[in-house]
Design goal:
about 70 residues; 4 strands; alpha+beta; Alpha-Beta Plaits; four-stranded antiparallel β-sheet; about 35% strand; single chain
Length: about 70
């Protein structure tokens, strides 16, 4: 299992957090997602089977933006 913290722009509220969490939960390879709009971060625990690019693209497709630390 892998754990990663991503910094995400454009999350404005709890609704944004829930939207992002629900979008990532569709993947069986993702075990846990925790989003915090106040800190602009998402913590994801996932299997190595899913490419990180797929996770990032899913987040970006929601009109959020994954940014470098």
């Amino acid at each position: 299992m892998m754990k990663i913290k991503l910094y995400v722009e454009n999350m404005k509220c709890k609704g944004c957090e829930n939207r992002l969490i629900n979008a990532l939960r569709i993947y069986n390879e993702i075990y846990k997602v925790k989003a915090n709009y106040k800190k602009n971060e998402v913590i994801i625990i996932y299997k190595n089977d899913i490419p990180l690019d797929k996770i990032i693209n899913t987040i970006n497709d929601l009109d959020f933006k994954v940014v470098d630390n």
